[in-house]
Write a structure and sequence with these properties.
Length: 427
């Protein structure tokens, strides 16, 4: 996929103007679109057989959803691809999204979210959904790892973690999905996962999205879309009560993960979405996180390219979620560094950020030597930094407290020395 063709595909997102003419404001999605989609969430996770039955039913009864087997697993189970779109409109003129769920067989929230989205679109309850499917093509792999799903394990039948096989493509599952992505030529790829309830990896403490950061060696349009989209989505997630961290990928990061392969290697805007499991994190809540992430990514990319359908036509841009009114109470940002605890296997330095005061803010960013590593909507943030990838000498950490539109409300800087010999706050 060349840079020129990727640019043309991204610019074609102006077609979403047609969709948004009558689209329900995303700012009301919790009471509207999201709650309607959530109405299709089952009480318990579906088995692979139940997923197959539901997809077969959609394929038989809906003209808007088609289902095909794009390959077979090691144990000869079908890898299903469901595509929601209006077949009466040319595919090459549509905005195309490719969503992958359940690369890890035990992570069921992505399957729940994508199936509910398909059911909602197949029902086309209003003209809004009809318009969406005229100008959108949403391709979904609800179960990327059928054998792991059936066996109740993370890996596939070959004991392979599929989300470590991208770039090598040694497994039937990743080979089949790669071929399907290439065939669909998507404008964005979304990979849905779940986080363990407990983990020594500090990056797994909360819901997160990982996407491509801004870097001079990457296509400027790719970086602009992924970084800005992550900021916009964080605002929505915060508005709907979902804590969120955003991490960024850069050249040199491993391409063995699905979203990094498509983003860093192939130049397609790609997003890893991880919902946190554990006590108080129901299947419905975790699936809702994934649905909101999908809607937010679609909405943002399209909204950037809005153009009037015709002179005088009204284009209704999806609004952001309701937020408490701004206050005049000042906010301050504190930054603290500490060595990782003994036995922590993912880092050797922890960056803590704390927002003080009761005023409103959008997010906090953490930058290492000027490169953004973390965006968090939480008042008490934590970033695990592996200093082994840094050169010897002094390094800087800056944290910014940002308003809704990304303006810095407060900035704090810290320095540290590699090899670690204590830390100090810069004056």
């Amino acid at each position: 996929m060349g840079d020129h063709s990727r640019t043309i595909r991204l610019l074609s997102l102006s077609l979403i103007a047609y969709l948004l003419v009558t689209m329900t404001a995303l700012g009301q999605v919790k009471a509207g679109t999201l709650s309607q989609i959530a109405g299709f969430f089952p009480a318990q996770p579906r088995s692979y057989e139940q997923v197959s039955q539901l997809l077969s039913q959609l394929d038989r009864t809906s003209t808007l959803v088609t289902v095909e087997a794009i390959g077979q697993s090691h144990n000869n189970r079908s890898i299903w691809l469901a595509t929601a779109t209006d077949p009466d409109y040319p595919s090459d003129e549509k905005i195309r999204l490719f969503v992958i769920a359940r690369q890890h067989g035990t992570e069921c929230a992505g399957t729940t979210a994508t199936l509910a989205l398909l059911q909602y679109l197949a029902a086309a309850p209003s003209d809004t959904e009809a318009k969406l499917l005229r100008y959108f093509e949403i391709a979904v792999v609800p179960v990327a790892n059928p054998d792991g799903c059936v066996a109740g394990r993370r890996t596939n039948a070959q004991q392979m973690d599929l989300n470590r096989d991208w770039g090598k493509f040694t497994q039937l599952e990743t080979q089949a999905i790669r071929a399907a992505v290439i065939r669909h030529q998507p404008h964005a790829v979304i990979d849905l996962h779940e986080l363990p309830a407990s983990s020594r990896n500090r990056s797994y403490a909360e819901n997160f999205i990982e996407t491509i950061g801004s870097h001079d060696s990457l296509p400027a349009l790719l970086c602009a879309n992924t970084v800005a989209a992550s900021r916009n989505i964080s605002y929505w997630m915060k508005g709907y009560g979902y804590p969120l961290n955003v991490y960024y990928d850069y050249p040199g990061d491993s391409l063995a993960l699905c979203h990094r392969y498509w983003g860093l290697s192939q130049g397609i805007p790609s997003f890893l979405c991880e919902s946190k499991t554990g006590a108080g994190r129901s299947l419905q809540e975790r699936a809702g996180f994934h649905v909101l992430a999908i809607l937010g990514i679609i909405n943002y990319l399209g909204r950037q390219q809005l153009a009037p359908v015709s002179p005088g036509s009204e284009v209704v841009v999806a609004a952001r979620p309701p937020q408490p009114p701004p206050t005049e109470i000042p906010l301050t940002l504190a930054v603290r560094l500490e060595p990782a605890a003994s036995g922590d296997n993912d880092t050797n330095l922890v960056v803590h950020t704390q927002v003080e005061g009761s005023g409103q803010f959008s997010f906090v960013t953490v930058n290492v030597d000027g490169v953004t590593k973390l965006l968090t909507t939480q008042r008490n943030g934590r970033y695990a930094l592996d200093t082994s990838r840094l050169s010897s000498g002094q390094h800087s950490i800056s944290a910014e407290l940002c308003s809704e539109f990304g303006a810095a409300l407060s900035t704090q800087q810290t320095t540290f020395i590699v090899p670690l010999a204590g830390v100090q706050i810069a004056k």
